[in-house]
C-alpha cells in the first residue's frame, strides 16, 4: 500500500510540474514562432509588414478573416522605445491596433473609433526610464514586460475597393525606434 501511495504521489507531483511548465512555456514558445515568422526569421524588427488580401489559402499565423486587411510589426525594445503610428482609413473604414507582449498577453489596444485622427503611441519596456523627448511628445505610453513582441493592425476591408483604401492607409503605418 505504501508503494502504491508513493507511486501515486510521484505521478501527481510530476503531473503538476509538467502542467505548470507547459503553462509557463507554451505562450512564450507560440510567440517565438510567431515573431520568427512575422519578422522573416528575426531579421526585420520595428517595421510594419503587409499581408496580401486574405484568401482561403492564407494561413501566416492563424486563420485570418477575409474581411480584414492585416499589417504586423515585430517590435524590439532592446535599444529603446518605439513610436507607433497608424493613420485612419479614408471613409468609414475601421482599424484596430493591438500590442502583444512576448508571452502573448495583449498589453494595448487602440482603434479608430476612439482615435478618429489615427493611432499614435509610444511603446517602451516596463521599468525603463523614458527619454525626455518621449515625455515631450505627450503620447500614450504602452509598457511591455518583454523586449520583443508583436503589433497587429487589422482594418475592415470586406471588398476589393475597401481593401485598396485600407492597404493605402496601412502602408503609412510606422513602428520605428525614437
Brief characterization of the structure:
30% of the residues lie in helices and 30% in strands.
What can you see in these coordinates?
- By secondary structure, this protein is of the alpha+beta class.
- 30% of the residues lie in helices and 30% in strands.
- The chain has 3 helices and 9 strands, in the order H-E-E-E-E-E-E-H-E-E-H-E.
- The protein has helices spanning 2-38, 132-137, 160-170; strands at residues 48-50, 68-76, 82-86, 95-100, 106-111, 119-125, 141-144, 148-156, 174-177.
- It has a 5-stranded antiparallel sheet with strand order 1-2-8-4-5, with helices on both faces. It has a 4-stranded mixed sheet with strand order 7-6-3-9, with no helix packed on it.
- Helix 2 links the parallel strand 6 (119-125) and strand 7.
- The mean pLDDT is 85.
Protein structure class: alpha+beta
Q: What's the helix count?
A: 3
- What's the overall average pLDDT, rounded? 85
Largest β-sheet summary: 5 strands, antiparallel
Rg, nearest Å: 20 Å
What are the low-pLDDT stretches, counting only 5+ consecutive residues below 50? none
Distance between the termini: 66 Å
Strand order of the largest sheet: 1-2-8-4-5
Strand content: 25-35%
Order of helices and strands: HEEEEEEHEEHE
Broad shape:
globular
Fraction of residues in helices?
A: 25-40%
Which terms would index this structure?
178 residues, alpha+beta, five-stranded antiparallel β-sheet, globular
Amino acid at each position: 500500500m505504501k508503494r502504491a501511495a508513493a507511486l501515486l504521489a510521484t505521478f501527481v507531483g510530476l503531473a503538476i510540474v509538467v502542467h505548470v511548465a507547459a503553462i509557463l512555456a507554451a505562450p512564450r514558445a507560440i510567440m517565438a514562432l510567431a515573431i520568427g515568422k512575422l519578422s522573416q526569421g528575426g531579421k526585420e524588427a520595428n517595421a510594419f509588414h503587409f499581408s496580401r488580401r486574405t484568401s482561403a489559402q492564407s494561413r501566416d499565423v492563424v486563420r485570418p478573416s477575409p474581411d480584414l486587411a492585416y499589417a504586423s510589426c515585430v517590435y524590439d525594445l532592446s535599444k529603446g522605445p518605439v513610436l507607433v503610428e497608424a493613420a485612419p482609413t479614408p471613409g468609414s473604414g475601421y482599424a484596430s491596433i493591438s500590442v502583444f507582449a512576448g508571452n502573448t498577453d495583449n498589453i494595448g489596444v487602440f482603434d479608430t473609433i476612439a482615435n478618429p485622427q489615427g493611432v499614435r503611441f509610444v511603446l517602451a519596456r516596463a521599468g525603463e526610464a523614458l527619454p525626455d523627448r518621449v515625455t515631450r511628445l505627450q503620447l500614450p505610453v504602452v509598457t511591455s514586460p518583454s523586449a520583443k513582441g508583436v503589433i497587429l493592425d487589422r482594418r475592415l476591408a470586406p471588398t476589393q475597393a475597401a481593401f485598396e483604401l485600407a492597404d493605402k492607409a496601412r502602408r503609412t503605418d510606422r513602428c520605428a525606434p525614437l
